[in-house]
Amino acid sequence: MRVDDAEALRKAAGDGALEQHAPIEVDGAAIEFSLRPPDGAALARAVRAMAERRIGALVQGSGSKGSLGNSPRGAQVLLSTRGLAGLRDFDPEEGVLRAGAGTRLGELRDALRASAWELPFDPPGAHPTLGGTLAAAAPGPRHTGFGRPRDLVLGLDAVLGDGVRARCGGRVVKNVTGYDLMKLQIGAHGSLGVIEAAWIRLRPRAESERTLAAALGSGPEACARGVALARLASARAVALVDKSLAEAIVPSLAPSAGWLLVAELAGDEALVSRDAARLTETVGAAPASPGAIARLRALQGETLGPIGLRFRLAVLVDRLGEVSADLARAGAALLVYPGSGLVYARFALDEPDGAAVDRIWRALGVAARQGGGHALLESAPAWAKAARDVFGEPDADLSLARALKARFDPAGVLNPGRFAGGL
Asked: 285 vs 21, 186, 276, 282, CA distance in Å?
């Protein structure tokens, strides 16, 4: 970065906000500067200076999703939201809270521990932040019961790519001002704006919780059974794990073939007892060892070896059996959430092998099309991403995405190259 550009960022964000350090590699890009604005006003000034000087920035919370997205293009600074941390408001009567984007989810859970409410986010990763979770629209094992991140946000503050601070929504459901802008920012991977803070709808804390597991067999029938069980009224997390991964979740019940079902039930005691009895009667479920959901969450965010690939597919639930069988034949280790049609497919590579990556990409494309959905490469070495779009094949929505990028980040300084189509 040029000396005058660095000085402009220091002046905009405040003393001590800009740090120069040894190069940090992010997907093949070496970044030597980090910027940590202390508040929303400083963030807006800094982004405005970036836009005026065409200084590309990689937006980052805790860094737990640093490999998610296409390889960056022309980024010169890491823009951290950790200075925007903190619980701003909590209404125990309404069950809503407002927090800064840089707040770690663990801090929010601690703040709610003595209340009747719980935080409805559980994405994988080390110390994920609220802003990072929303920017990536990152689900966790409990999204079956909690809902997706975009369903849980009542209001959102963001700084757009020209430095304008925007507020949409509010603390109550009826406040829908700016609703569409809020939906655009959630899942945009920081390419349309930097999330500053958000109002979140909380979930009542469950009276009873139980986690059970069972060997479910194999084939399309097993997937169909998993879909049915995910619709139980108390189902908060329901997953199918293939035999290659089951040992890491519930060693005592890991099947020698087919799927391992893991289900977490939560709600009032009568409902949980009824659904637990159904699981026991229909599939022979037994209590899972403590920490099964935490291990499931960790597994969702892991790759197989240092140069492995991890994909996330969203497909129609009635095609899960067919998609899973195709991916297994291609060599994938599988974790499936049958209630939502999410499939996590992991592939191990012994060494850098472009031909193997090409083969895997083709298999994922076929599976996504057969499943009536799409695929996202969540994690891979930088060399495996080269000349590829991790968001999959371009579609008719790409022209709309380009128009939105031009409107909300006209200078192209927010996560340049990271989003779909290299935007």
From this structure: 53, 37, 8, 8
For 80-95, what is the mean pLDDT? Answer: 95
Is 326's pLDDT higher than 70?
yes
The percent of residues above 90 in pLDDT, for the chain, comes to 70
Task: Please tell me the distance from the alpha carbon of residue 242 to that of residue 328, in angstroms, as a whole number.
Answer: 9
DSSP 168-186: EE-SSTT--TTHHHHHHHT
Domain range list for the chain: 3-83, 84-204, 208-291, 301-385
The gap from C-alpha 420 to its chain's centroid, in whole angstroms, comes to 15
Q: Residue 223: helix, strand or coil by DSSP? A: helix
Answer yes or no: same fold for 3-83 and 208-291: no
| Encoded tokens for 164 | 């304008």
CA distance 171 to 393: 37
Count CB neighbours of 1 within 10 A. Answer: 17
Put simply, whether the predicted model's pTM sits higher than 0.85 gets the answer yes
Residue with tokens 């984007």: 101
For domain 84-204, the CATH class is alpha beta
Residues 6+ apart with CB under 8 A from 138: 65, 123, 124, 125, 128, 132, 149
Instruction: Give the three-state DSSP class for 398.
Output: helix
Query: Looking at 85-89, 194-198, 366-370, 389-393, which range is the least confident one?
Result: 389-393
Cα 20 from chain centre: 29
CATH top-level class of 208-291 = alpha beta
Alpha-carbon separation of residue 217 from 197, 258, 259, 287, 293 (angstroms): 45, 5, 6, 18, 21
Q: Find the helix or strand (DSSP H, E) in which 53 lies.
A: helix 40-53
Interaxial angle between packed helices 220-229 and 269-283, expressed in degrees from 0 to 180 and rounded to the nearest 10: 170
Determine if residue 303 is left, alpha or beta; phi over 0 gives left, psi from -120 to 50 gives alpha, anything else beta. beta
